Amino acid sequence: MEIDIKVVGDEDSELWNKLIASASHSTIFHTWEWLKVMEKHTWVKFMGKKIEGKLYPLIGFHGNEPVALFPIFAYYCSPFTILCSPPAHTDIPYMGPIFINFEQLRQNKRESLYTGFQESVEVFINTKLRASYISVLSVPHMVDARPFKWAGYQVEPLYTYQVDLKVEREKIWEGFDRGLKANLKKALKHISVVEGGLQDIKPIYTSLVERYRQQKITPRISLDFLLDLYNVSTPETMKILVAEHQGRYIGGLIALAYGDTTSAWIGTTKTQLRGLYPNELLHWKMIEWACEQGYKSYEIIWANTQRLCRFKSKFNPSLVGYFHATKYPNPLFGVLMELYAKLSGFKIFS
Prior knowledge:
This protein is α+β, with helices and mostly antiparallel strands. Helix content is 35%, strand content 30%.
């Protein structure tokens, strides 16, 4: 299938969001407002220099009909160009291409569309952007990585967790780990969970930074980034819950709601309380809210770190696949990255 690629601008924001709403597997991360906030805050550090990113929102057309979308962020690190989807330093877990009404197509049409679009994207990024390195994280349920492999990418399988909310709430509870249910019953007696707002983002962020500091990890996002995202979201699409014990803040969770899925995104770090587990309660309260609002699944983002999976799997979620595709159109850049990492112990961009 022959696909034409068009880069759209602010004047096309309504069209973009309309297409996103009709695309299969679309996420809040693909919406125009979120993409523009990401563009404002994303950057990479290349050879000690901070390089800001530029958004390229691509729409694929088959004739006059839009059939696919692919937001890509470019970092011009002369003489190299780095492309990422999702962008760096945003803690966005996935992005990549999405296709309009993809699930309604027959398999041969899907493959023709997917392959044709990827081939056209490759031409665009190699001729217009002259990419040296490309990193793409697909959306959940998009497990077909063949068009990327055929285009020369290295592909790594990844996973996220999703709890099925289409069953009765009692059935969801019954599926939980026995220890989790005991912790939740105790927490319900001693911890209150209230709906939060803008003022609660800072304590959630502060606790996250402190947890990173304990693990000797540099935070990948800024407080200003979260505040800007809040300002372009609604209380329904960015849901904040706060846990309190004896009137004192002890934890919070920022969840995102889009389409038929609610996703636990940021928060729920460890607390100093003994015998009480506010993080588990925050998840349960978010699940209850999602059920009341009619969402079909609750995602506990990221199931690829072993030490975190033990906690997340207690909620009896299903494992949902996606993938990470990487490519070095400029082999010299790959050699330089490896050499720099060996000499300094750090990646050439971070």
